[in-house]
Amino acid sequence: MPQTDLVRLPKRERAPFASMVRRIGFACVLVLFIAVVVWLGRDGYVDITDDDSIGWLDALYYASVTVTTTGYGDITAVSDSGRLATIFLITPARVMFLILVVSTTVEVLTEQSREIVAQRRWRQRVKNHTVIAGFGATGQAAANDLLARGVDPAEIVVVDSSKARIEAATHQGLVGIVGDATQTETLQQAAIEDASWIIVAPNRDDTAVLVTLTARELNTKAHLVASGREQENLHLLRQGGADEVIDTTAAVGRMLGLGTHDPGAGMVLEDLLAAGVGLELVEVAPDLSGGTPHIPDDCTLVAILRNGDRLPQADVRLDNIATNDRIVVLRET
Known about the structure:
Number of helices: 10
Number of strands: 13
Strand content: 15-25%
Number of domains: 3
Distance between the termini: 44 Å
């Protein structure tokens, strides 16, 4: 059974160090308050180990042993004023100190229990989500694109061996898994067997091939997209089970060439790649209920994919759309 300590769920931003400093400061204020009360009423206290009057150090010592309920009994209140100060001032301060200590302990234990319960609930309901293996520059860009397209952050699970990257993912509201994506146990913690989409985006091609093989073995139905850097490794990703393989090096090279010789076309292409703004290419389902296939009025038919192949542009017509075709259209976001 997979462990749960690798799962990092998104949570509200907190400042635990600042909160702890405030509590320690408040505890010190309580100690100083009791010391001042004792020192001001020092004539009403007696130290059985010393005949001299109560000094500031004695008052501070008495305050520290009092708030911690140690109470050695060497310094005691002997006058009525000293006893009244103990009843109405020192005792409430001692109670507040104990409440502060107990509440801090309970909060720590409660936070741990809340995290365990949240992980269990997440495992019970996670399904049809997207798993991103690798949260470097490519993985982060893929996640940002999904978010811009309206995907719920809670439905994106990021797997990376870097705790800093996983922390960055949880800050975006994503679910993070700290671990090696090439390991079966790590991917199982990401509930990869129930995922609908898998994005493989590590920084190395050999890692990408291994992750693709492992992910495809665990989930044979999900749509798997993998990125590769070297041309000679792309066929390995396809053989490993990737439905789509993105040649990141060639894609960037084409953008550079297009931006150099056809800057206008480069601007349009950049607009297409920016999800959530301007123009966008999307895959839609045509309406085949009537006699003639129909697409939304704000869409322009760009491509028809039949049996995994793109039809020649001369055959890209509405009256040429078949039942199982996938069509790609251009529209304003």
